[in-house]
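hiii, so i know i said id send this last week but things got crazy w the move. better late than never?? heres the sequnce for the chain we talked about at the cafe, plus the structure i predicted for it. fair warning i was half asleep when i ran it
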Amino acid sequence: MELGGESRAAVGRAVRRNAAGMSATLRYLGASVRIVAALAVAAATGGCILTSDLPNPALDVPDGYKAARLTAAEAPPTLDWWRGFRSPELTALMEEAQTVNLDIAAATARIIQADAQARIAGAALLPSLSTGDQVTRSKSSGSSGSLTSSSGREFTTYSSSLSASYEIDFWGKNRDAAQAAEELSTANRFDRDVVALTAMASVANAYFQVLAAQDRIRTAERNIASARRILDAIKQRLAAGTGSDLDVAQQESVLANQRAAVPPLRQTLAQNLNALATLVARPPERVRVLGGSLNRIASPRVTPGLPSELLTQRPDIRRQEAQLALATANVGSARAQFFPSIQLTGQGGYQSAALAALFTPHAAFYSLAAGLTQPIFDGGRILGNFEYNKARQDELLQTYRKTVVSAFADVDTALESIRQNTERLRLQRDVVSSSRRAFDLAEQKLRAGTADIVTVLNTQLTLFQAEDSLIQTQLSRLLAIVSLYQALGGGWEPRMEKPVNAL
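okay and structure toks below
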């Protein structure tokens, strides 16, 4: 359908009127935005009035660790600290766990949630804008109060408007709430580091438990073979008339005990293999761990650095620090609720009964309002909320202090455990060497027919226990090293300057 000349001219005039109306709308909106921006600057300037500072934790940071002979900043743990054990299989498991561990994935998801909450909380610091277009069709009543009636009139109204609202954060309530949400996001990031460090330590511990179980099983099998040789020698003495049934029964008991010790060791091996599978997020059937022996694992020398560095390296300390900052921001937000709330609202747009005249200057309207709300009586809700947040702040302050003190104790405990297990390992190797020599001599005398059966029984039991204790001591020392890495907060970032003093 084609339009005539007059129709096209009318349409053109309507389009020009609409364009002029839109320009006026944009000018009006620009002025409104400038007003809101000025108010936002004033609010940001005044929002620092009630902000609370972090409480002083009054920490007692020692100059050095009690269990370290010398303390300096030389050679801190590296980020990939597990490579110091020189096990390619352990390194592969560690790297896999870093990417697929489900606990780490869940902690990462909590970070995303906290970031979203921070954006939600920060939205209160900005004005809220909304636009709306509406068409209203109405009809008036046809009754005029008499018996006669006429049909009512129908009306159509077109409107297009923009609404804005903003709360002046003069007392810092919304700013502190946003700060609290940001600190929660920071705390969740450090929580993710805590989870990752725990997962890495669990992988290392489980792997060393696998190696220890394999070593103990091999040792038990060697001891079974030795006990069987002794049993055969005693039976030969019995056949020659120089032994007794009691001697045979005693040795059979020793052999049976050694055989009975194997199933629990195999169970321990299976449990730790399954634990490794869980840590790398795979079913046990999909995980193949070759293992080996603890004798092939290197023992890295770990230097603890300075105690003051622990405050920035331990993720659990940083997490508690962020939670304390969160609680402090909540105190400021709760305190600001005692003061008036100032709300600004505005609306502007166009309203007309004819669509063609909607965006004309005479169809424009606007409204501006400012409101102040002061709490008078709320049954103690605001006061209770303030006292709760103050008590929560004090709780987290004490928790932060305890975390720091516990961190120093963890490092000292791990250092002392490494030292004592190192000494115990040296002494236990001497025990094994002496016990093996005594057992070999007793076995030679038994075959020569000159050994006392009680002496043979005692020497073999001593050897069996010494060899098993040696493996457990090796395991304890490796676990202590892992504990020290964990107590130090895992691997540290490379230093920009090389320290002068050495540990």
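btw Residues 173-240 form the longest helix (68 residues). thought thatd interest u
miss u guys!!
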